[in-house]
Amino acid sequence: MTQPLRILFTPSLREGYWLHVIHTEAGARGVSVANFGEGEADILLAHAIDHDEALAQTASDWIILADSPEAALSICGAALEEVPPGRQAWLAANHRLAPAALLAGRGSTVFDMGAARLDLPRLGPIEMPFEIPVQTPPPAPQLGLYAQLPIPVGAASVWPADLFNYPLGDDPTGGESQIDLTGRARTLMFGPYATLPPGRWRATVKVMVDPEGGWTPLWFDWGAQDNMTVHEETIHEAGVYSLSLDGGWDRPTEVQMRAVLTQPVFQGRFEMLECRVERLDDAEPAGDQPAEAAASA
């Protein structure tokens, strides 16, 4: 049997319409279709595949039918009944977009689901017979690095504060992004454990720190549990600070940014503002950039 064409869809309201067109046209042209992992056919369709499974695939056997990251977040929010889309919708969208980005980065051809006509391998030209009633979703900067597949160097997502976890006492997620530092050394924030494709990535965390006349000893780390980039910084003056940390991995990896208060303090305030995650050139030398005050408080 000839090697089948494998099609991976990114989340979209257009997904179901194109599935219908593919099944209809394939049936008319004598081309067999099945779901990936459920049998043999000329065309195998996948709505989602595991990150490690994507890593094991031959990219040239796949094509990607892709829509915008805004479309992905919107449809995942609707599916999870999370309106407006929040952390769970974002994690679900990212979980499906990351394997698509991995395959695209290794050579899979990407087609735009927003087009009226697609010329697909093994099937030929197919057309959407009507205009799909899709409204323009709101911006999704938290998924911005997926705006173009494959992900280009310099593409970035901005992860807002509400995607992270903030311990409160014995509850690892019970706190908020605005933190009274008074007390023992402890983890201030961590997460969000989103999977990023292989490659090199820079995380720039932006925080507000006010030592309130004292000093604030902080530890930041970025990456995965067994592959972390670390930076320690003691803040003496109130301000909004940015710190960039670089990391890289050769397989899909769940990553986090963590901030830790390393010693007990008697006063001070901390607020997580955002974290910008940017794709780096694999040839760029690794390193971290010391914290700099982005603005005076």
Fraction of residues in H or I helices? 10-25%
Got a strand count? Answer: 18
Query: How many DSSP helices?
Result: 4
Structural class: alpha+beta
What is the average of the pLDDT values?
Answer: 92
The share of residues in extended strands comes to 35-45%
Major sheet size, sense and barrel closure: 6 strands, antiparallel
Write down the secondary-structure element order. EHEEHEHHEEEEEEEEEEEEEE
Q: What is the CA-atom radius of gyration, in angstroms? A: 22 Å
Oligomer: single chain
Low-confidence stretches: 290-297
What's the end-to-end separation, in Å? 67 Å
Shape: elongated
Describe this entry's structure for a reader:
The protein has helices at 15-28, 51-56, 69-79, 87-105; strands spanning 5-9, 33-35, 43-46, 62-66, 109-112, 117-120, 124-127, 156-160, 178-180, 186-189, 192-196, 199-210, 216-224, 227-235, 239-249, 253-261, 269-280, 288-296. The protein is an alpha+beta fold and 297 residues long. Strands 8, 9, 12, 15, 17 and 18 form a 6-stranded antiparallel β-sheet that branches. The model is unreliable at 290-297 (pLDDT under 50).
Please outline what is shown here:
With 297 residues, the chain is an alpha+beta fold. It has helices at residues 15-28, 51-56, 69-79, 87-105; strands at 5-9, 33-35, 43-46, 62-66, 109-112, 117-120, 124-127, 156-160, 178-180, 186-189, 192-196, 199-210, 216-224, 227-235, 239-249, 253-261, 269-280, 288-296.
Primary descriptors:
5-stranded parallel β-sheet, disordered C terminus, 6-stranded antiparallel β-sheet, single chain, alpha+beta, 17% helix, 297 residues
